[in-house]
Design a protein that fits this description.
The chain is of the alpha/beta class. It contains 28 helices and 31 strands. Helices cover 47% and strands 20% of the residues. The strands form 7 sheets. Strands 16, 17, 18, 19, 20 and 21 form a 6-stranded antiparallel sheet that branches. A 5-stranded parallel sheet has the order 2-1-3-4-5, sandwiched between helices. Strands 7-6-8-9-10 form a 5-stranded parallel sheet, sandwiched between helices. Helix 12 runs antiparallel to helix 17.
Length: 915
C-alpha cells in the first residue's frame, strides 16, 4: 500500500548556510510549496536524479563547486524548462554576465526578505503554468542594459514568446519597421531616443500604430511620468521594482486590450513635456547620485575604520587600551559626539569601562548611567539597537536622559558576540545623525566589533592566565613533564627534565629523539617500548635507563597519555626519577642474595665443622698414640712415616679449619654491629678467600705496618676488601704472574687515620670511566658478569664508617685504591695466653650430648682415659636420664641440634635441675 501522492510543486533550495536554508524552507512551505534541500553542489546533483524540480533557488557561493558551474551543470541536465534563480551577497558585472550566460533567470541579493522570496516563487511557477502564454507571438525588448535585456529575453522566451532585442529607441524603431512585433517592452531611460520617444514614434507611424507598448522604468515612477506615458500612447508604465509578475500582467492586458488611441497632443507639446521630464529626471538623478556618493563616502570611511579595527583585533593581543582606541576611532569617523562603553561583570552588573566626549561633571553621573543602568542592561539583553526617544522607553525617562547627556538622541547598542552579551554602548548625537538606517547598521556593526574585541580580550586574558598556570605547574613540578610526538621526538618539556638530565635549559632537549637520551645499548629497546606504550594508550612504562649529559645513568619511570593539541596527536609524558629507588631495590636484592649466600655458607661451615672437629680430634689422638709408641718401642721407620703422615693430615685439617673460619666471617648475620676490628686479621682472611683469583695473575706483596684497630664491622669490611682485591686481580690478564704485582699496604698517617692501599700493575682505567666508578649500575664487565653495584656498595660502607675511598689510575701503569678509616677510640686488647693443660685430679662423670655420632665418639675417645663419659644424641634423652636420678659433673652439649637446641636444653635443665 502506497501513501498519498505529493502533487505540490517541488522547489530545490541549494544553500550551504543552514540558517538561511531553514528560513527559505519554512517560508516556501508556509505558502504550500514542497522544498527539497541541498547543502552543496554534490548533494544538489544527486537530488535531481530523484526529483524533477519546478524551480531552483541556488546560492552562488558553495563549498565544493563554483556556483555558476553548478548552474551550467543543472541547465545541461534539466534543459531550459526549469528556471534557476541565484542568490548572492555581492555580484560583479562580470559575474552577472556569466550568470545570464549559464541560463540564470533572476539574481537576488542577500539578505532576501520572505515576501520577496514568495513573489519570486509565484512569478516563476506561474510562468510555468502559462508556458504557452506567448506562443506564436513576437515581442520586441528594448533596453540599453545588456544584462537586463538578456534576462528579459530569457523569461519571455520561457513564456513562449519569440523575442527580438534592441539596445536603444532608434534601433528598436528600425527593427519594428523591418519586422513588425505584436508588442514592445521598452525601458524608458536610454541614450538617444528614450522610451517615451520610441512610444510616440511607434504610435504616430500609420504602419506601427497598432502595436501596444509597455514601458518599464526604475527612475520614472511618479504620477507625472505615468501621465506622460499615457500621453505618448503607452499601454502601461510599470516600475521595475514591481517585479516580472507585474510586467507579465501588463503585457497580457496590453495584448488583449483594443489598441490605444493615438496621441492627441501636438508633437511640440509632447516633446516639450518629454524633455521637461527628462531634464527633471536628470536633475533628480544628479541629486540622488550626489547623496549616494556622500553616503557611500561616509560608509566607506566607517567600513575602513571598522576594517582597521578588525585588523587590529586580529593582529594584536587585545587589551583595554586597544578597545578604547577602537571605540574612539569608530565614533570619530561616524561623527558621533559622545559615547560610553559599559561591560558586564560575571554577576551581570554593568560597569563603565570607556567614555568619549563627556565632560568631567557628566562623567560623575556617567558611572551610574544617569540612573539608567538597569534599563540599559534590559535593552542590551534583548539584543537590538534601540533609538531613544523610543516607544520602548517612557517619555519622562527619555527626556531626562537626553537632557543629562546633552544630545537630542541616544542609541543603546548591545555589545554581543554570538549569543553572549558583554555589555552595552551608549551613543549620543543629533537625532538626524543617528536615526537613519545607515546609522543603525553602523551601530549594529560597532556593537558586534566591540563584542568581538571584548570577547577576544577576555579570551586572551583567559589563555594568558591558563598559560601562566600551566607554566607554573610544569616548571615547578617535582616530576619531569614533556610533550612528544608519537614517534618519540620531544616537542616541549619543563625545566625539571632538563635539570634532571644535566642540560642547561629545556630548549636543548626540544627536537631530540628519545633514542638520543637512551643509556648505551638501550636506544632500540627504549624506542620499541615507547611505541608499544603509545599504541596501547594511557599507561606506565617500566623503569627506563637514560644517559645524562655528563654520561651518568639515570632511571626514570614514565606515565604516558595521548593528547590532541591543535588537531595534532601527541603524547603527554610525566617522568619520575626512580634512580635511588632502583638502587636501593637492587642493593636490597644484592644484600638479600648475599644474606642467602651467607646463610648457606654458615650452614656449610657448620656442617663441615662437626666432621672436621671429629677428624681433627681423632688425628690428634692418633698422633699422640704414635708418639707414645715411638717412646715405648723406639723410632722404627714405619712409626716415623706414620707420624709424618698424621702430621700432614693434621696440617691439612687445620687449613680446612681456617677456611671454614674465614667463611664464617663473611656469613655473620649481625645488623652492622660495630666494634674494634683488627684489619690485619680481616685482610688475611680475605686474601685466603681471594687467593685463587690472585695466584694465576700476579705476585702478592704484603706491606703491613703497625696500626690501631678501627671502629667497624668485620663482615662489612671483609666484603669491601674482598671486592677491591678481586677487582685488582681481574684487571690483570691471566699468565705472566712474575711480571705483575698486587701490593696491599697498611699504615697510619699523622692524623691517626688508618690507610689501606690496594695497588695493581694492570692496564689502568681511562679518565672518562674513572669518574663513573662509584655510579650504581655502571660496569665495564660483559652483561651477566657484573651488576655495577660492587664499588657503589663499597663506597656506601666506607663512608658510612666515617672513612673515604679514592681511586687514582694511569693508563698502562696501574691503579691505586686508597681506603682511609678513623681509628677506634677503644684501647687495643690482647688475648690472654693459654695456660698449660691441667691434669684432672679425679675421674669425673661427663655427659656428652651431640646429634653427630662421629663428633660424640671423637670427644668420648679423647676423654675416656681420664673420665666416665656418657654419650647421647638428643637433648630429650639427656633430660630423661637426669630426671631419673643420674648426676654428672660436667655436661658438654652441641648448640645446633634438631628437635631441641642446646640453648633450649639448658633452659629446661635450669628449671628442673638447677644444681
Amino acid at each position: 500500500m502506497t501513501g498519498p501522492v505529493d502533487d505540490r510543486p517541488p522547489i530545490l533550495v541549494i544553500e550551504d548556510n543552514a540558517t538561511t536554508r531553514k528560513t527559505f524552507r519554512l517560508t516556501l512551505e508556509s505558502a504550500g510549496y514542497r522544498v527539497v534541500e541541498a547543502h552543496d553542489a554534490r548533494m544538489a546533483l544527486a537530488a535531481i536524479e530523484h526529483v524533477w524540480p519546478s524551480l531552483i533557488i541556488q546560492d552562488l557561493n558553495l563549498p565544493d563547486m563554483d556556483g555558476l558551474e553548478l548552474s551550467r551543470s543543472l541547465r545541461e541536465r534539466l534543459g531550459d524548462a526549469v528556471p534557476i534563480v541565484c542568490v548572492s551577497g555581492f555580484l560583479s558585472r562580470l559575474d552577472e554576465a556569466r550568470a545570464v550566460d549559464v541560463g540564470i533567470v533572476q539574481i537576488l541579493v542577500k539578505p532576501v526578505a520572505p515576501m520577496q522570496l514568495l513573489d519570486v516563487a509565484k512569478i516563476h511557477l506561474t510562468l510555468l503554468e502559462v508556458a504557452n502564454f506567448g506562443l506564436g507571438r513576437r515581442v520586441l525588448v528594448v533596453d540599453d542594459d545588456p544584462l537586463q535585456r538578456q534576462l528579459s529575453q530569457i523569461w519571455l522566451e520561457s513564456a513562449g514568446f519569440e523575442v527580438s532585442v534592441a539596445a536603444d529607441g532608434t534601433a528598436a524603431l528600425a527593427a519594428a519597421r523591418s519586422r513588425s512585433p505584436e508588442i514592445v517592452l521598452s525601458d524608458v531611460l536610454m541614450p538617444g531616443l528614450d522610451g517615451f520617444g520610441l512610444c510616440f514614434a511607434l504610435r504616430t507611424d500609420p504602419l506601427l500604430a497598432h502595436i501596444p507598448v509597455v514601458l518599464s522604468s526604475a527612475a520614472y515612477v511618479e504620477q507625472d511620468d505615468r501621465e506622460l506615458a499615457f500621453g505618448v500612447g503607452a499601454a502601461a508604465l510599470i516600475t521595475k521594482n514591481d517585479g516580472r509578475a507585474a510586467i507579465m500582467q501588463a503585457i497580457g492586458e496590453a495584448l488583449q486590450a483594443p489598441p490605444r488611441p493615438r496621441p492627441k497632443e501636438a508633437v511640440g507639446v509632447l516633446e516639450a513635456r518629454r524633455a521637461n521630464r527628462a531634464l527633471w529626471q536628470l536633475e533628480r538623478q544628479l541629486l540622488e547620485n550626489a547623496r549616494l556618493r556622500k553616503r557611500t563616502e561616509q560608509q566607506e570611511a566607517q567600513l575602513s575604520v571598522l576594517a582597521g579595527v578588525a585588523e587590529s583585533l586580529a593582529r594584536n593581543n587585545v587589551d583595554d587600551a586597544v578597545i578604547g582606541e577602537a571605540l574612539a576611532s569608530c565614533l570619530d569617523t561616524a561623527g558621533i559626539s559622545k559615547g560610553a562603553l559599559y561591560t558586564a561583570k560575571p554577576d551581570g552588573h554593568l560597569v563603565l569601562q570607556h567614555q568619549i566626549g563627556f565632560s568631567e561633571l557628566e562623567t560623575s553621573r556617567l558611572h551610574i548611567a544617569f540612573g539608567c543602568l538597569r534599563l540599559f542592561g534590559e535593552l542590551a539583553d534583548e539584543g537590538h539597537v534601540v533609538l531613544i526617544p523610543s516607544e520602548r522607553v517612557s517619555e519622562g525617562v527619555a527626556q531626562q536622559l537626553l537632557i543629562e547627556i546633552g544630545t537630542s538622541a541616544v542609541l543603546v547598542v548591545p555589545v554581543t558576540l554570538a549569543t553572549k552579551t558583554f555589555g552595552v554602548i551608549i551613543l549620543g548625537a543629533r537625532l538626524e545623525d543617528v536615526s537613519g538606517e545607515d546609522a543603525l547598521a553602523f551601530a549594529r556593526v560597532l556593537g558586534a566589533q566591540m563584542g568581538q574585541a571584548i570577547g577576544l580580550s577576555r579570551s586572551f586574558a583567559s589563555l594568558a592566565a591558563g598559560e601562566r598556570r600551566y607554566r607554573s605547574l610544569t616548571e615547578n613540578a617535582n616530576d619531569s613533564i614533556a610533550i612528544l610526538t608519537p614517534d618519540g621526538v620531544i616537542r616541549e618539556c619543563n625545566r625539571r627534565l632538563a635539570e634532571f638530565l644535566g642540560y642547561a635549559s629545556a630548549d636543548e632537549l626540544v627536537g631530540l629523539h628519545i633514542r638520543d637520551l637512551a643509556a648505551p645499548g638501550h636506544a632500540q629497546s627504549n624506542d620499541q617500548a615507547y611505541r608499544a606504550l603509545v599504541k596501547a594508550g594511557p599507561g606506565r612504562s617500566p623503569p627506563t635507563e637514560l644517559q645524562r649529559k655528563d654520561g651518568t645513568i639515570a632511571v626514570v619511570e614514565f606515565s604516558n597519555a595521548p593528547v590532541t593539541i591543535n588537531g595534532e596527536e601527541l603524547v603527554l609524558t610525566i617522568g619520575r626519577d626512580v634512580t635511588e629507588q632502583v638502587q636501593v631495590q637492587s642493593q636490597l636484592m644484592v644484600s638479600d642474595r648475599m644474606a642467602s649466600v651467607g646463610a648457606l655458607a654458615a650452614g656449610v661451615a657448620h656442617e663441615i665443622n662437626n666432621p672436621l672437629a671429629a677428624a681433627t680430634m681423632n688425628l690428634e689422638l692418633a698422633d699422640d698414640l704414635a708418639t707414645e709408641l715411638v717412646t715405648a718401642m723406639g723410632a722404627s721407620p714405619q712409626l716415623v712415616e706414620l707420624q709424618a703422615i698424621l702430621h700432614d693430615a693434621r696440617e691439612a685439617a687445620d687449613r680446612v679449619r681456617l677456611i671454614v673460619k674465614d667463611l664464617r666471617i663473611f656469613s655473620r648475620a649481625e645488623k652492622d654491629q660495630r666494634g674494634p676490628v683488627d684489619l690485619h686479621h680481616v685482610l688475611e682472611s680475605t686474601l685466603r678467600m681471594a687467593w685463587n683469583e690472585i695466584r694465576h695473575r700476579a705476585v702478592l706483596v704484603k706491606r703491613f705496618g703497625d696500626m690501631p684497630r678501627v671502629e667497624g664491622n668485620e663482615s662489612r669490611l671483609g666484603q669491601v676488601f674482598l671486592n677491591l682485591i678481586v677487582n685488582a686481580a681481574q684487571a690483570i690478564p691471566e699468565g705472566h704472574v712474575d711480571r705483575n704485582r698486587i701490593t696491599i699496604s697498611t699504615s697510619t698517617n699523622g692524623l691517626g687515620t688508618v690507610v689501606i692501599e690496594f695497588r695493581d700493575t694492570g692496564p689502568g682505567i681511562p679518565p672518562e670511566i674513572l669518574k663513573k666508578l662509584f655510579t650504581p649500575f655502571f660496569t665495564t664487565k660483559p652483561v651477566g658478569v657484573g651488576t655495577g653495584l660492587g664499588l657503589a656498595i663499597c663506597h656506601r660502607i666506607i663512608t658510612g664508617l666515617g672513612g673515604t675511598i679514592t681511586v687514582t689510575s694511569k693508563l698502562d701503569e696501574g691503579t691505586v685504591v686508597r681506603v682511609s678509616l678513623p681509628a677506634s677510640d677503644s684501647s687495643v686488647t690482647t688475648e690472654s695466653p693459654i695456660s698449660d693443660v691441667l691434669v684432672a685430679k679425679r675421674r669425673g662423670h661427663v655427659l656428652l650430648v651431640d646429634d653427630d655420632k662421629m663428633m660424640g665418639t671423637a670427644v668420648q675417645r679423647a676423654l675416656v682415659s681420664e673420665h666416665e663419659v656418657t654419650t647421647l644424641t638428643t637433648a630429650q634423652d639427656a633430660l630423661d636420664l637426669i630426671a631419673a636420678g643420674q648426676t654428672y659433673d660436667v655436661i658438654l652439649c652441641d648448640l645446633m641440634m634438631p628437635h631441641m637446641t642446646g640453648a633450649e636444653f639448658h633452659k629446661h635443665l635450669m628449671q628442673s635441675s638447677p644444681e
